[in-house]
Design brief:
The protein has about 220 residues and is mainly beta. It is about 5% helix and about 60% strand. It starts with 6 loop residues before the first strand and ends with a strand. One of its GO terms (biological process) is cell-cell adhesion. It is a single-pass type I membrane protein.
Length: about 220
Amino acid sequence: MDDTNFTQQRSVLEGSTFRLSCSAYGKLISLSNGTVCQATKCELHLVNYTRYDPKIIECIADNEKSTRISKVVHIDVYYPPKVTINVRTLIGLRSTDVFLECSSDANPTPLITWLDDNRQEINDYNFYTVKTNNLSSILSFSVFSNEYPNVLYYCQSNNSIGTVEKLIDISSIKRISNSLCLTFYYLGFIDFNLKSDHEATTVRILTTHSLRRQKIGK
């Protein structure tokens, strides 16, 4: 450690092995597993370090003749992206609204990009809407029957450590949009006037009639 800084930052690649050293005057005695001490310097060997290991490590020097001193190291573990996909739909009268959500766990913060079936970046914002924050992105659009041929999409996430992408196939959504029909009904009443020798009675019967059948989509 640099003797002039009491707090340091250390970036490591996940799965790697690295060493932290701490120097102090006096007779050094190791109190931590994995620490090797020689003369006035101790080294801590960290093997296969992951994002789940401690983010802060402190070196403390203390004896009966001095005030306790310490130095802190903040560990920033870098790892490649991992992507998860969530698909939601909202079926309307003439179209199906599709929401593709791509979430990425990575460090450093990844860049999320949407690609079409030709593996070209999507930038047609007249047809698509993209909402992105640090670790997720939502691509939304409407599907009309036999209107837009693209059924394959790719979510690509990359940072300085690596790149990953996932394929999303919405062909089943288009089939649902093409085949779904709506039947509309209207209600009617039929009145019957029944007469007897003593009084007249009106009976009303509720009826339903199919008005038309409309297919979702153009």
